[in-house]
Design brief:
Strand content: 15-25%
Largest sheet: 9 strands, parallel
Helix content: 25-40%
Oligomer: single chain
Number of strands: 16
Shape: globular
Number of helices: 15
Number of domains: 2
Radius of gyration: 21 Å
CATH architecture of the largest domain: Alpha-Beta Barrel
Distance between the termini: 35 Å
Bound molecules: guanine, zinc ion
Structural class: alpha/beta
CATH class of the largest domain: Alpha Beta
CATH topology of the largest domain: TIM Barrel
Amino acid sequence: TVRTITALRGHVFQFSGDPFCDNPAEALTDWSDGLVVTENGKITAVGDAAELLKTLPDDAVVHDHSGQFILPGFVDCHVHYPQTEVIASYGAQLIEWLNTYTFPAESKFGDIEYARRAADVYLQQSFANGITSASVYCTIHPESVDALFEQAARYNMRIAAGKVMMDRNAPENLRDTAQTGYDQSKALLEKWHGQGRALYSITPRFAPTSTPEQMEATGALWKEHPEVLLQTHTSENRQELEWVGELYPEHPDYVGVYEHFGLLGKGCILGHGIYLNDREKSLIHETGTSIAHCPTSNTFIGSGLFDVRGSHFTHEPISVGLATDVGGGSSFSMLTTMRTAYEVAQLQGYSLHPVQAYYLATVGSAKALYQENRIGNIKVGMEADFAIIDPLSTPLIRHRMAYANNVIEQLFIQMILGDDRAIAATYVDGKRVYSQAA
Ligand code: GUN
Ligand code: ZN
């Protein structure tokens, strides 16, 4: 058998604990001249370069990222790849935004060639921003799902994705039925889940675009296939909340609709969760459901402010990951997404610690996907996905970094001032998939 030993040398960062505690900085471990050794897509050693270099065989390839930060690849736990073409659409809040921009864009994805090109654009944008895993919404067209998984398979990327199900309150050409939504999702999950690193996520868009019959069929499908994930939206916008109350009058609240149909549980990722009541929060906690915090989307479409402090510092904490939510989100940059998460917390009187922000973008999102033993951290046995940050990527950052007192401040400067220019390279499955042009 061929052994492919590749090592990355640079300033290596690892999460050794959960930073949502009294002393967040203690959750971070770093090696300023560190080495990460990988073999066939898995991490086999992490530590000081001086020591580990001696253990490498002569034919090992060492990528020199000295002076750069080696971080776990970012995990975007909620994104819509077909909406890449409508990112930065002006002047509408959620429901109007969906009808005006999103649905027309999504209607094109029955054409598999179109979908393939869009999937490629999406993946290149993700890699250029250090994103190595994501939980992705496709469209109602099975072709849109095949296209994305096919493109991601070229990199053996750990990607989760699913066919959107909608059987009401959407244009005719974007509706399936309870039966076809079930049948197509089942066929797709049998085809793709577990192929290489692919994961299937059952994807009912949100309660307003599914009839109770479709919700029922969705719950049945997840019960038959508990090994796959499930993703949907909840409690993003006040008008949406009111609408759900009208469409599902017999349920106590929005999350209660998903509860009723068996859609909560480990591996369920609910997008947004801004206006949750205490009952809903308890349910999310008890069932092991996660929330995808999408700060650039929540500010850009004017939805509201997610309470990241309240979800962690309570006797019933909620699992939270960080997400771009493109095209409602306004950036593919996870650094910009962290910056906006910081700003959203600031507006609520809480200063999100930089170690907490990076944790949400890596371990937090990996936990939302129930993949934290495989992705989101740099530890022996985990998969070899990395984001490499050039900490001096612009004149302003270079100037500011000269005044940083420690590594925590350096990380904070990157998330506040950095963007795609700060991503020097991205590795997926031990191989370089992106490198910034010199
Ligand atoms: N709610 C239902 N669909 C969507 C979507 O595509 N984007 C966002 N941000 N919210 C949604
Ligand atoms: Zn979304």
